[in-house]
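seq/struct pair 1
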Amino acid sequence: MSGQAIAKVGDAEIAGNRINKAALKRARAFEQHARGTVQSLSGKFAWATVAVFLGILASVSTVAALAIAGYVSYWVAIPLNAVLIYAIFAPLHEAVHDNIAGPIAACAGLNS
């Protein structure tokens, strides 16, 4: 198609004002099914995610303190902390999607 923009929603193509309605209907049904599945698997406070975050945070702090005190070489501490900081992405990712606090409004600050 020369000069016409094509957008994709799932596998539904939208070109100009023409919409593949059957594909759009399938995409919406898939989205509803996915949301129902995810909601049934979540909704509780994520204690495991909080524990992982605190464990990684404690590990980073311990490695830094040991390196500053001279018990661990910087050549060991820096790569080790780099791996730990990379691992902290998982709890951060869950927080971005508001998956930490669940339905507990008083703990909603953990999601930010």
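seq/struct pair 2
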Amino acid sequence: MAEVLRATERGQDREPAVDRALQRLLASDDAHRLLTALAGVPVDQRHAVVLAGSSGSTAREIAALEHVPLGTAKTRVRSGLRRLRAELAAEDPSLGRGG
């Protein structure tokens, strides 16, 4: 993650970090279902969720990568996870809160 933060400080794009995190997701068994659900999450939230979930980035690291305040990064992760949960539950109701 330090490599990504240094690249961000040099003004390089955040996309390589997101791309690497998505590559890790693609290696998982549920990649297709997860990617389909992620497509229903707004882009800014999707980036935050992928960075937090796949590469273990903290909210502070996400804020630095996305060039947003810490509170915005936290909100994007939380909102993105809610949306992802809803997308997955729509596909398979057993994955909802009660399942």
